């Protein structure tokens, strides 16, 4: 009995990935299943909208990577080797620009004969980084009734850009 060819099946994390703005994220949780792939070569493509980010990956002795540092990378190798590469967090997503808001990562896997493929996607969610207040470790010392200049104060908010911030001080 001959079985009809089975298409590959991509697995991507249901909740996608979450990262802080300006922080690359490793695309973990990716894998491919294909019951009739055996040890034949297959191709896995990952892509993002070029306005939202780039993908980075580096070839290994088992998996060939093309398109690194662009919006689309292609991985070539056997099913076992590609899955090992993906399990090792072989692909990184980096958002574009100071105000990047994340986006969808698309995954297309194609059989060695090119007849069967699977297309799926998951979302990269960017979370707002809170501001960081810096104060001197020892605080300030003064005598009662004597004013003190509060030096060494600073506020850093990586994703505020040119947006106005409000800072309050209280004793």
Q: How would you describe this structure to a colleague?
A:
The strands form 4 sheets. A 6-stranded mixed sheet has the order 2-11-10-5-8-7. A 3-stranded antiparallel sheet has the order 3-9-6, with no helix packed on it. It is built from 1 helix and 13 strands; from the N terminus they run E-E-E-E-E-E-E-E-H-E-E-E-E-E. A hairpin with a 6-residue loop joins strand 10 and strand 11. It is 5% helix and 37% strand. The chain has 171 residues and is mainly beta. The mean pLDDT is 87.
In short:
This protein is 5% helix and 37% strand. It contains one helix and 13 strands, in the order E-E-E-E-E-E-E-E-H-E-E-E-E-E.
Beta-strand content: 35-45%
Strand order of the largest sheet: 2-11-10-5-8-7
How many beta strands in the DSSP annotation? Answer: 13
User: How much helicity do the residues have?
Assistant: under 10%
Bulk shape:
rod-shaped
Give me the number of helical elements. 1
Supply Rg.
24 Å
Outline the biggest β-sheet: 6 strands, mixed
Structural class: mainly beta
Distance between the termini: 82 Å
Name some characteristics of this structure.
171 residues; 6-stranded mixed beta sheet; rod-shaped; mainly beta
Q: What is the topological layout?
A:
Layout: E1 9-11, E2 17-20, E3 25-26, E4 31-33, E5 41-48, E6 53-56, E7 64-66, E8 72-78, H1 79-87, E9 92-95, E10 102-110, E11 117-127, E12 132-134, E13 154-156
Parallel strand pairs: 2-11
Antiparallel strand pairs: 1-4, 3-9, 5-8, 5-10, 6-9, 7-8, 10-11, 12-13
């Amino acid at each position: 009995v001959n079985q009809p060819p089975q298409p590959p099946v991509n697995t991507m994390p249901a909740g996608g990935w979450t990262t802080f703005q300006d922080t690359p994220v490793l695309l973990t949780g990716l894998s491919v299943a294909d019951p009739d792939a055996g040890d034949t070569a297959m191709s896995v493509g990952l892509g993002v909208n070029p306005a939202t980010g780039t993908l980075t990956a580096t070839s290994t002795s088992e998996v060939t990577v093309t398109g690194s540092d662009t919006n689309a990378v292609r991985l070539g190798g056997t099913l076992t080797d590609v899955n090992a590469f993906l399990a090792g967090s072989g692909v990184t997503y980096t958002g574009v620009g100071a105000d990047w808001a994340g986006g969808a990562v698309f995954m297309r896997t194609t059989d060695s004969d090119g007849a069967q493929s699977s297309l799926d996607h998951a979302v990269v969610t960017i979370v707002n980084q809170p501001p960081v207040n810096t104060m001197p470790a020892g605080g300030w010392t003064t005598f009662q009734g004597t004013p003190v200049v509060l030096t060494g104060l600073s506020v850093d908010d990586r994703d505020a850009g040119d947006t106005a911030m409000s800072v309050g001080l209280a004793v």
